[in-house]
Amino acid sequence: MSFIAFFQTNPTAFIIVVSMIGLLVGSFLNVVIYRLPIMMEREWKSQCCELLEQDNPTKETQRTFNLSKPRSRCPNCNHAITALENIPIVSYLIQGGQCKGCGDKISVRYPVVELMTAILTAIVAWRFGFGWPAFGGIVLTWALITLSGIDFDTQLLPDSITLPFLWLGIAFNLFFAAYTDLASSVIGAMAGYLSLWSVYWLFKLVTKKEGMGYGDFKLLGLIGAWLGWEVLPLTIILSSVAGAVIGVSLIMFKSHGRETPIPFGPYLAIAGWIALCWGQDLTNLYLGSLH
Fold it and tell me: What is the distance between the alpha carbons of residues 115 and 24, in angstroms, rounded to a whole number?
């Protein structure tokens, strides 16, 4: 029996395997969430110096910094993280949430991202079963987690993730029609971008302020490319509700100032993931309530 046939006939085994993979991927997503904004900032500074025909004073002193180099280190004592100290969740628990070198506290977000990636991966595997819809949904889930983490930290949604995944969603529906047909996918990408673009300019004309960034337009376009234009109203409603509930909660508990901007990307990602798994069910439930 091939492993394909094994997973097709043993959905529980498939869920367990992909959830374990999700733990490992979650560890890598932590690296991307932390390093990619720094890489982007360095590239912007280099481009600005080049455009202004100025020398980059930090270019010669900067070491290679990308998603694979240098090795992960404690920001407090520069202790190099070994493989045994980098086992998802397990290492954090064994070390009591502290650096082995200096005892400095390790952010709880690292194991949270790893655990969340594993759980959401398992849910997608359970929802779709072994096949292309599950594989595409898992990859999309990983991208949404990464974008949420980066946007939460920096209020940036990198083009290096949103644009390739937008095109990947169209390609996925072109070859596999896993979630919608090609026409709906293309229209979803356009409508997703243009809908928030229109809201942005309307809000700016009325208030003279910017209510969101262009990255949000691209993220909703990405969701539309994967899931089709039909899920966009549901996604916008869910993201607005999530943003309102979480935003008000943060203000009430005084962990977030009223004047401090709240990134919208994580709420779009939450809504997009819900639409991925239960979008059709929720739409049918809503339409059924109208009768």
Answer: 10
What's the token pair of residue 77?
């004592």
Mean pLDDT (the chain, rounded):
88
pLDDT in tens, 34-77: 999 999 998 888 888 888 878 776 665 677 888 888 888 777 78
Q: Are 226 and 140 in contact (CB under 8 A)?
A: yes
C-alpha dihedral sign at 143, 145, 149, 151: positive
Is 53 in a helix, a strand, or coil?
A: coil
Type of residue found at 215 = G
The answer to whether 140 touches 165, Cβ cutoff 8 Å, is yes
Query: Are 106 and 99 spatial neighbours (Cβ–Cβ below 8 Å)?
Result: yes
pTM greater than 0.85: yes
d(CA 169, CA 184): 11
Q: Which of 160, 163, 166, 150 is nearest to 223 (CA)?
A: 166
- Tell me the pLDDT tens digit for each residue of 273-286: 999 999 888 877 76
Q: Which residues is 73 bridged to in the sheet?
A: 80
How far apart, in Å, are the Cα atoms of 71 and each of 83, 220, 272? Answer: 10, 34, 33
> DSSP code of 230?
G
